[in-house]
């Protein structure tokens, strides 16, 4: 049985750390930031209390390394090791994109969280808008709750006024609204202004929002002749809602969102929540840039706003290269301390396309080229880095994009093991919130010691322990009859994400034995992890076969090509090309010929083309000369070598691939096995048997893998009964010291 985890009193230290994490910014991200302390201003002040809430992400994606659990290998179809009952496969399982979406109850809410009761207003000296957890979410911009001039703004800026005709046509352009988004055109967003804003300034803002400005001179006249303020802030709130507003500088409102409403860039407050806002589009890019340039020339601050509302971050989220380039070309642009490398905030139902992801990566690379220290900057208040911020990225982005983005940060100096002020690494944070796409990317880059790393003052608080504690806490609240429906919906969204993240950690080598076991709560959390480990073990055979098929795919493709190329070849031509090659040699000697059958002439004497012969066996052997079996070392492993089961499985996989690609194998059919007709009955032909116990009992790869799984499950109470992956459990015990390669 597994050794008990280290004992440590009760949960006091863990709970204290979690509370500190909540107070300091460790909660999930918000669409708004506060990077400076905001003070309440009475009367004509625009800023009152900033209301903070939490959200959950509603989107669930299954990691690419978790395929279907059915693994019983029985036949060869189209050159692939095939599972019984699976679709016909020509090549290895393709990696899942990682951005599949599921509609959840919280679809309209940023990051999938359900609204919670806002915290009590903080005194001015405390800094309004301090997030409810440490460094996990960006600093928050002011959310205005009072001091708004109702005589200037008016509800629904898109409802009246403005020019007709072509301008209205421009408003009507674009894709339909995604779930949770709102449009100014449909009178569902109010735009108002701080008290004291002049009529001219409000007109200027509404003209830009509506895209009714026809040229830069018209805007210049409003500023110079009518006294409009180019730095006026617009306050956005969903019509009919109460509470604060989302503030946005005029420069940011000029920028067109070019993502077809798949990545938000402008937000509005919506009661205790936020919603993305769709603005009309400018007639063309030239007019957009002309308006932005005119504002800059008339004194608009290109660094205005806070957090996601800053012009540079709006341009990034909008995938607007032209606006981004214009801002980057300004001598006063400020990048440091603006978290420009942070991924855009999204709704859980948003679906960025590959084109938009490519644009974002291009923009991030330009930022790094301008200042490579942007990849390593830290938040002054919490000590968090871009990798900590990435740990809060919900699974709306493809796994490939996350890999490229995190790779860009690490290549430019980001420390994947860096800690914030509480000692949490990016992996601790992603384990706490269950964003498994980022967890998978981090785990692929971390050694086992860092995957099982605790805190300096609490060694048992590994990422796996953090995830188990979160799963336990969420499960307890979900089962509590006093938990409200909104909270239940939020927990129902997060719990599956946490479970998936636990499986990612276990596949990467997270050690259950390191989890504390001293208290009842510790034991309960450990028991919550075991079913997830059973899932990992049940899926491991499928993962192994997918990896083997991927490693052998180049040889299969080469063999297919050679089969075609050898159509008109002769034995002599093949012998001339491969002097030591005998295509007639078989790995298994053929049965003796009946007495009345004359033996075939030696192949060296055969001058006939191979056109009428099956060249697959010859092609397979020739193709083996062009394949590097070590490809497994460069591909993702189903389980890491840090565990005993991982070492056994990975060693067996490597041996199988080397044997399959050797000259001792006559063809792919011998590798995959299948069935054959013997005396009118279908008889199973085993896979390539390249393993032997004590030199005589031959084993297939799947038998070796299953034995390793059963031995691993036996280390934990109750786990063997959960192993049910379509393979017979009657796999004889193997003395691993006696296992050899046949």
Automatic annotation (TrEMBL):
Residues 19-43, 88-98 have a biased composition (Basic and acidic residues). Residues 1-182 are annotated as: Disordered. SUPFAM superfamilies: Ankyrin repeat. Signal peptide: none annotated. It comes from the Eukaryota. Keywords: ANK repeat, Repeat. Residues 144-164 have a biased composition (Gly residues). Residues 8-18 have a biased composition (Acidic residues). InterPro entries: Ankyrin_rpt-contain_sf (IPR036770), Multifunctional_regulatory (IPR050745). Residues 122-137 have a biased composition (Low complexity). PANTHER family: ANKYRIN REPEAT AND SOCS BOX PROTEIN 2 (PTHR24189:SF50), MYOTROPHIN (PTHR24189). This is Uncharacterized protein.
């Amino acid at each position: 049985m597994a050794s008990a985890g280290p004992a440590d009193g009760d949960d006091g230290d863990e709970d204290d750390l979690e509370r500190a994490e909540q107070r300091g910014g460790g909660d999930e991200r918000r669409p708004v930031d506060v990077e400076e302390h905001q003070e309440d201003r009475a009367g004509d002040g625009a800023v009152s209390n900033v209301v903070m809430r939490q959200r959950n992400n509603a989107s669930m994606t299954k990691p690419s390394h978790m395929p279907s659990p059915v693994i019983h290998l029985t036949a060869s179809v189209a050159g692939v090791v095939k599972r019984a009952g699976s679709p016909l496969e020509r090549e290895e399982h393709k990696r899942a994109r990682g951005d599949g979406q599921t509609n959840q109850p919280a679809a309209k809410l940023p990051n999938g969280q359900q609204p919670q009761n806002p915290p009590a207003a903080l005194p001015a000296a405390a800094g309004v808008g301090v997030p409810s957890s440490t460094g996990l979410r960006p600093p928050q911009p002011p959310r205005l709750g009072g001091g708004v001039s109702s005589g200037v703004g008016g509800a629904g800026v898109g409802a009246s006024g403005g020019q007709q005709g072509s301008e209205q046509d421009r408003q009507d352009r674009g894709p339909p609204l995604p779930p949770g988004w709102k449009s100014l055109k449909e009178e569902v967003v109010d735009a108002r202004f701080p008290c004291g804003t002049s009529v001219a300034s409000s007109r200027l803002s509404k003209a830009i929002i509506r895209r009714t400005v026809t040229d830069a001179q018209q805007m210049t006249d409003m500023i110079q002749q009518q006294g409009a303020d180019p730095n006026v802030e617009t306050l956005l709130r969903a019509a009919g809602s109460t509470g604060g507003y989302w503030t946005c500088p005029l420069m940011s409102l000029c920028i067109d969102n070019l993502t077809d409403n798949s990545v938000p860039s402008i937000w509005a407050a919506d009661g205790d929540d936020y919603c993305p806002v769709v603005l009309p589009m400018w007639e063309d890019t030239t007019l957009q840039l002309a308006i932005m340039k005119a504002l800059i020339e008339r004194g608009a601050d290109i660094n205005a706003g806070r957090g996601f509302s800053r012009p540079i971050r709006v341009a990034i989220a909008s995938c607007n290269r032209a606006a981004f380039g214009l801002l980057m070309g300004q001598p006063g642009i400020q990048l440091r301390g603006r978290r420009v490398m942070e991924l855009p905030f999204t709704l859980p139902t948003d679906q960025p396309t590959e084109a938009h992801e490519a644009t974002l990566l291009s923009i991030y690379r330009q930022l790094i080229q301008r200042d490579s220290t942007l990849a390593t900057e830290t938040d002054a208040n919490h000590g968090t880095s871009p990798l900590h911020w990435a740990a809060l990225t919900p699974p709306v982005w493809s796994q490939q994009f996350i890999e490229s983005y995190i790779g860009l940060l690490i290549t430019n100096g980001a420390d994947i093991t860096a800690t914030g002020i509480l000692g949490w690494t990016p992996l601790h944070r992603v384990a706490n919130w269950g964003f498994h796409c980022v967890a998978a990317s981090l785990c692929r880059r971390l050694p086992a010691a860092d995957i099982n790393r605790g805190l300096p003052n609490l060694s048992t608080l590994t990422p796996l322990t953090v995830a188990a504690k979160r799963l336990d806490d969420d499960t307890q609240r979900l089962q509590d009859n006093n938990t409200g429906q909104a909270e239940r919906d939020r927990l129902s969204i997060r719990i599956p994400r946490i479970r998936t993240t636990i499986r990612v950690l276990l596949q990467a080598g997270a050690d259950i034995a390191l989890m504390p076991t001293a208290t009842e709560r510790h034991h309960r959390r450990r028991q919550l992890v075991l079913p997830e480990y059973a899932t990992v073990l049940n899926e491991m055979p499928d993962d192994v076969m997918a990896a083997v098929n991927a490693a052998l795919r180049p040889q299969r493709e080469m063999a297919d090509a050679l089969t075609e190329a050898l159509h008109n070849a002769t034995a002599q031509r093949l012998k001339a090309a491969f002097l030591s090659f005998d295509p007639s040699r078989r790995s298994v000697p053929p049965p003796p010929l009946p007495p009345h059958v004359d033996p075939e002439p030696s192949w060296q004497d055969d001058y006939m083309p191979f056109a009428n012969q099956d060249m697959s066996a010859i092609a397979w052997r020739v193709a083996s000369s062009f394949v590097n079996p070590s490809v497994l070392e460069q591909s993702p492993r189903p389980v890491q070598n840090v565990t005993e089961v991982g070492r056994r499985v990975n060693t067996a996989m490597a041996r199988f691939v080397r044997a399959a690609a050797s000259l001792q194998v006559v063809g792919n059919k011998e590798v995959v096995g299948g069935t054959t007709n013997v005396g009118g009955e279908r008889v199973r032909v085993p896979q390539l048997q390249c393993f032997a116990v004590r030199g005589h009992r031959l084993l297939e790869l799947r038998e070796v893998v299953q034995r390793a799984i059963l031995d691993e499950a036996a280390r934990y109470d109750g786990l063997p009964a959960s192993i049910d992956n379509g393979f017979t459990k009657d796999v004889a015990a193997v003395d691993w010291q006696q296992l050899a390669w046949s």
